[in-house]
Amino acid sequence: MTKKELNNKLQKIVSNNQKLNLPHIFIGILGNRVIQIVQQKDKNGIYELNIADEICSLIRVKEVQNNISDGVKTCTIEFINDAGKLETLESFPRIKLCDAQKCIELAKYGVDVSSLNAKIVVAHLQNELKRAQYQECTKQAGIVKMDGKYLFTGNSSFYYENSEFQKSDIRYIGNYNLEPSGKLKSYKQFLNSEIAPSEPLSVALAIGGSALFVGYLHDEIDLPNIVVHLSGDSSIGKSTAMMLAISIFGGFKIGKKTSLFGSWNATDNAILEMLNDNYGVAVGLDEAGMSKDKQFAPYIYRIAHGADKQRLDYEKGNKPIRGWHTTILSTGEIPLADVTDKASGQKVRLISLDSIQWTNSAEQSEKIKAFISKNHGTFAPALAKYILRQGTGKWKRLYEQEREKILQALNCDCFKERLSKRLAIIMLSATAMKHMHIDLDLDKIRDFLCQELNKATSYETSISEAAYSHLQTEIVNHTNNIEIRCHNGSLIRGVPAGTIWGVAYTHISSNPDKCIQTNSLEDLEVDSVNIPLSTVETFLINKGYHNCKAIYQSWMQQGHIEFKQDAKGISNYRFIVKTGDIGKATCLRVKI
Predict the structure, then answer these.
(1) pLDDT for 345-374, tens place per residue?
(2) Structural domain span for residue 148
(3) In terms of CB atoms within 10 Å, which end of the chain has fewer, N or C?
(4) Number of domains the chain contains
C-alpha cells in the first residue's frame, strides 16, 4: 500500500467517525487490526495521517442487546483470536466494556487485551458501542405480559391486537432450545395417528400444553405452577411421555446446555436456573430415583412456588427476584412422596401419576422418540396463537366450568380444592388442542386424571388403616409403659424413668386405686393416649411404613388422631395444630 493510499484510508476512517459523532475519531479498524491514528506535517508542511500505534487485533461490537425484563445490557463481540481466526462471543456484559480493569476479562476468551493496552482498548470499544446495532431482547420464554399486551416469546415473538397477530421485534435470548424442527402439519398428523388414540399419551400431551396456560393466566386467577411426577419401573414409557410433552416446545437432547430435558442429578442452582424466566414452556427433570441423597421436599415447595432466592447482581445490586409460571414434569422409579415425608402440604403441590403404562410397547416408545427427535417446537406457537385469540375471559369461564366437574369427581376432600386448579388447567390445554383439530377425548382425559388421583388416595387410605391397626396393638402391648393422669394433669399412675411410652388421661380420678389395679385402657376409661411423635415415627419405620407424613394426613382426615404442640413432648396443655402445620407437632393424641 502506498503512502497516499494509506492516507486516503485513514482519512476515510476519521471522516466516518466524525459523521457518526464517535468519541474517539482517531481510533479505528484497518483490516484485522485496531489502530490509533495521528495527524502530522510532512516535510512540505502539509498535514497527513499516519498510524501512530497498532492497539490490538480486531475487536468489533456486533450487537448490543437490551433485556427489557430488567434493563441489563449485554453485547455480541466479534474478534480475531490468537490463531488468527474470527470468533464470536455472546452475552458479554456491556458495563465491563467501559472499565479498563473489567475489560481484561475478555482475555480469557482469546481477545487481544491486557493490562498494557486495556485503557486504549476501552476507548475503541466506546466507539464500537456507538456504532453497534441495538436489539431489544428478553430471557423470558412463553406468554409474557408486556406494556399491557400478552406477548408470546420463543423462536418467534408475536402478540394479538385489534383482531390480528402482530410480529414483535423483541428477540428471545434465553437458555432454552426453542428452535423448531420439522413441519407443523406432520406433527399434528402424528398426534392424531399415534397419540390421540391412547388415553395416557393424550394426558401427557395435555400436561405439556398446560404450561402455556399457566404462563398466560397466572395474573388473572390464583394459579399455581403445575408439577407432575411420573413414577414406575423403566418399562412403562414414562420418559417417552415426558419427551412427548416437551416436544411441543423444542428439543430435548439430554446433556445439551439449552435442552428442555434436565436431570434431578444436576446441582441445586442449575435446576433453579433452568426454571428461571419460564412463563409457559414445559420442562422435564428425569430419574429422580438416581438422586438418592437429594432433599426433594424443599424443591417441590420452591418449584411449585415459582421463585428463586434473591441474589446480589453485579450491575444493579439487589435485582428483582426471578421466577417462573409453567409446568414441570419429573420422572423416577419411585414416587417423590416416598422421599418427601417431612414435606407439609406436598400433596397439594404435586400431581403424582404412579405405575401408569404410558406406551403399549418398546416399539411404540422408540417410534415416538424417533419422530419427536426430528419434529419438535412447531406446535407451541400455533397453540399460543389459538390461546391468545380466544382471550382471558373465555378461558377463565371454561376454567371454572372444568373445576366444577373435577371437584365432583375427586374423592380427596382435603386436597381437591387446590388439586382441581391444576387439573382444570390441564383440561384447558386439552380443550384448546381439540379445537385445533387434534382428536382428543376430553371426557376420557378428565376421567383418567381424576381416577388416578382417587386411586392414589384410596391406596394411601388402605395403607394408613393397616398402620393405625398396628399402632393400636402396640399401645395395648405397652400399657404398663403408659403414664396415667387426670384431665387436670395430676399424676395417678407413674412409670419408671426411661420406660415411659405415652401419657393417657382418664375420667376416673375419683377412684385412683382402680387405675393402679388394672392394665386395661378400656377399664381405665381412657379415650386417648398422647405419644411423642418421634416414638410413633420410629415405630412406623420399623414396621416398614416409610411415608409417615402421608399416613399422618390420612389419620387426621379419618379422625383417628389429633396433633398436639408441646415443648416437652408430653403435657396437659392441649393445642390442636392445623393440618398444614403438622411439621410443628411434637406429640400425637391417638384415639382409643
Answers:
(1) 455 578 989 889 999 999 999 999 999 999
(2) 141-170
(3) N
(4) 4
